[in-house]
Design goal:
Elements: E1 2-5, E2 37-42, H1 49-65, E3 68-73, H2 76-87, E4 95-98, H3 102-110, H4 118-124, H5 126-129, H6 132-136, E5 139-140, E6 150-151, E7 154-155, E8 157-166, H7 167-172, H8 181-193, E9 199-200, H9 207-216, H10 222-230, H11 240-254, H12 267-276, E10 281-285, H13 289-295, E11 301-304, E12 314-316, E13 319-321, H14 329-339, H15 342-350, E14 354-355, H16 366-380, H17 395-408, H18 413-430
Parallel strand pairs: 1-3, 2-3, 2-4, 9-10
Antiparallel strand pairs: 4-13, 5-6, 7-13, 8-10, 8-11, 8-12, 8-14
Helix pairs in contact: 1-14, 1-15, 9-11, 11-18, 17-18
Amino acid sequence: MKIRRGIGAALALAMSILPLAACGSGGDAPQEAHPSSIKIWYYEEPSSGQARGWLKAADIFTRQTGIKVDFEVKSFTQIAQNGSQFLNSDDAPDVMESNRGNGSAGVLSTLQLLTDLKPYVQKYGWDKKVRGQAAAVGKYDKRGVMDGNTWYGVSSYAEMQRVYYNKDLFDKYNIPIPRTFDQFVAALKAFKSHGVTPIAADAQEYGVLWLWWQLAMTKADARFVDDWQLYKHPVNWRSKPLTFATNTIRDWIDKGYISKNATGMKAEDTTTAFIKGTYPIYQTGTWNQTRFMEQVKAFDWTASIFPGAKMVEGCAGNLLVIPQKSRRKDAAARYINVVLSKEVQNYIGNKGGVPVAADTDAITNPKSRDLVNEYTKASDASRMSYYPDYPAPNLTDAMPAAFQELVNGTKSPDQVLDTLHKNYDDGVAQLDLDDD
C-alpha cells in the first residue's frame, strides 16, 4: 500500500464543475482483466476512524487479491472545485472520495463522470448494509437530485455535528453541562461573566456556517429540510429557522459568546484550540472525535447532539465513487466491498468513526459506542438535515463568505439572508433542474 500527498494549487473555480457539461465523457473505459494495482484519491483527515478503516481495508484487499492499493491524498478544495476535471481525464483514479449532495456528486452524475453502481450493489448486497438516509446521499435521479433511483456512490461511514464540552472548565466555574437550549444559553452567559469566551468557531471556513445551520435546526422540521435540500417547495427566506439562526449568530458575536477574531480562524485553529483547553464549547463534525480521543490529555470531555435540536446536522459520510473512466471497476468495487465488511466497519467504530454497517456490540470504546448509538437513533428517526451547502456547487464558497460579513459586521442579518437567497437561487438555477 502506498500513500502519496497531492501537490499543486487547486485550479480556479471558474474552470470547475459546471462548464464541463459540454465536454461529455460517457462510455465505459476498456477494463483491465488482471490489474496489479488500483488508485484511490481521498481527502479525509488521515487520523479519522474512517480514513484508518480505508487503509485497513486496503491491507485486507491486497491479501485477498494480490492487487496493491495506491492512495493519494488530495485536499477537500481540490476535489470540490476540480472534481470534474480529474474525473474527465485519463488519469482519473479507480476510487475517489466525493462530497455527497446535489451540488457535488449529483452534478458529477449528470455529467456522466461516475459509474452506475447497480451491478455491484446487487452483486454484493450493499443496499442491505447502506439503507435509509445513508443510502439517499449515494443515489441520484436524472437531474442530479439525491434520493433518486441510481446508485453513484456508497457511504462507508456517517458523520454529524456534535457539541464537544470541556468538562474540566465546566466544573471549574460550577456550570452544568447543558441538556436544553435554554441551559446552553445560560452556560454561554455564565462563562462570559467569568471572562471566558465560550464558543470556538471559525468563520474563515465552515464553523460559523455549521453552527448557524444547527441553530436553524432547533426550529426546523423535515419539510423545511426537504424544501432546502430537495427543492420540494420554495424556501421561505424569512422563516423562523433562518431568521432565528442568523439573528442568534449576530447576537452571540455582540455578546462575546463567539470571538470576533473568528473571521481570521480556520477549522484547524479552532480544533487545536479546543484540544489545548482554550474553549469550553466546540461544535464540530464527528470526524474530529478520533483526534479528541487520542490528543486531549489535559482535561476530560463529553459530547452530544446540539441541545434542543429537532433536526440533526449531518448525514451518511462522503461517498466512495468509481469514476466512469476507471479501467479497473471490478477491482474498485471489490475494494469498496471490503470497506463495508463487518471487520472494517467494526474497526471504524472502535477508532472513533461512525460506521454504517457495524455490530454495535463489537464497539468496545465507551465514547465511540455513545457516538454510534446517538447517530443511529437520530438517523433511524429520519432527523438528519444534511449540510446547508448541498443544494448547489457555488454554496460551498458563497455561504462562508456571507457569514464572514455577518461576523465582522459589514452586513446585517437581513442583508446576509438576502445574499444567501441570491446565492441559493443562482446556484440552483445553474443546475437546470427542469431538464429531464
